Amino acid sequence: MLRSCAARLRPLLVAHGRPGGARLTVRDRGSESTFSFEEVTQKDHALPKPSWSKDLRLLFDQFMKKCEDGSWERLPSYSRHSVQRFQNFTKAFFSGSIPVKEEQISQAKFFPRSFEDGLGFEYAMFWSKDEKRIVCLFQGGLYLQGIPGFLHGGALVTLIDTTLGMHAMLAGGAVMTANLSINFKRPMPLCSVGVINTQLDKIEGRKLFVSCNIQSVDEKTVYTEGTGLFIKLEPGKTLV
User: Fold this and answer.
1) SS3 per-residue string spanning the chain
2) What is the pLDDT of residues 36-80, one digit of tens each?
3) Which of 13, 128, 142, 148 has CA 20 to 30 A from 27's CA?
4) Catalytic residue among 28, 117, 161, 201
């Protein structure tokens, strides 16, 4: 099944950051898009919770072990953007009026983190700079059902977009999704644990091509395959 999003670019400055209580922030410096780190006091949702299954916790512990020698890095994940981050983003990529008011931003939540624990997605991403790939460990909660007993395809696309977009952002800076092509191979059981593996296929100017698949924990089943095209944003060139 093919789902193309080329008709409308969607912002993908995702609510993730770096370890140590800092979050990635876009700033405008001349013609380049740069990032700084701002301290955050929000809850890091990419850490084990009581709602995590035994399989998800086991995989998480295995990757945390890989982080000890510096070859892998866990990517924190937050549910909200700060007002400061919103201001930095609008300053860099909007001119004139902006689509959302600052008081609304303080109430808004990052979509994949908008459900109560155990009802939506539980996930943690790990990044290997040397291998140039992200591994996202996840389980889909009860509010993500499609056909009875299985995850909704649109929910899986959301997590694919989030994971591929994070990879593109780490590789190229601030990006937006231009196109997603999704091939559903098999339905994925509700509340089961899956693994997303990403790879950067190529870069052409401001275009970043990233692909992934979703596998079962034992790697015997491929549930979904996806490719994405992301466009690197340029400060000074307004989005609207």
Assistant:
1) CCCCCCCCCEECCCCEEECCCEEEEEEEECCEEEEEEEECCCCCCCCCCCCCCHHHHHHHHHHHHHHCCCCCEEECECCCCCHHHHHHHHHHHCCCCCCCCHHHHCCCCCHHHCCCCCCCEEEEEEEECCCCEEEEEEEECHHHECCCCEECHHHHHHHHHHHHHHHHHHHHCCEEEEEEEEEECCCCECCCEEEEEEEEEEEECCEEEEEEEEEECCCCCEEEEEEEEEEECCCCCCCC
2) 434 446 789 999 999 999 999 999 999 999 999 999 999 999 887
3) 128
4) 161
Buried b (16+ CB within 10 A) or exposed e, 187-225: bbebbbbbbbebebeeeeeebbbbbbbbbbbeeeeebbb
Is residue 161 annotated as a catalytic residue, yes or no? yes
Of the listed ranges 29-38, 72-81, 230-239, the one predicted with least confidence = 29-38
Band of residue 22 on the pLDDT scale cut at 50, 70, 90:
very low
Give pTM, 2 decimals.
Answer: 0.79
